[in-house]
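Have a think about this chain, tokens included, and walk me through the fold.
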Amino acid sequence: MENILKRKNQLTEHQLSILASEMEKNKKSTGLAYVLLFFCGTLGIHKFYLGEIKMGFTYLILGLVGWISLVVGFTSISFYEGGAGATIFSILIFCALGIFLVIDLFTLPSQVKTNYEVIESQCIDNLLNS
């Protein structure tokens, strides 16, 4: 944080106004991140929103595999009296995903803050190098 402040002090007034404008455009809402977490958490949409693409794909893959194996498991149980393995597999996937989502539930504000600081640092670097 101190590093960002030191680098900010090197900016001119014009560069500071550009920085403020860029930060306003790229500002992420903690409230929206929570809404995305609650309604689309198993698909990782809140991670994509925060720019964490790799983690977003991890959540998305886990969520899709979990939902597909759950449907296959229940369909197999209903029609063929089998498929318990797919159902158990989906439960394990959802347990792992649930752990990630509970962690996100408590760390989302700091994730939004970290995202803001990373974007601010990148903008300052771009302004200082231009």
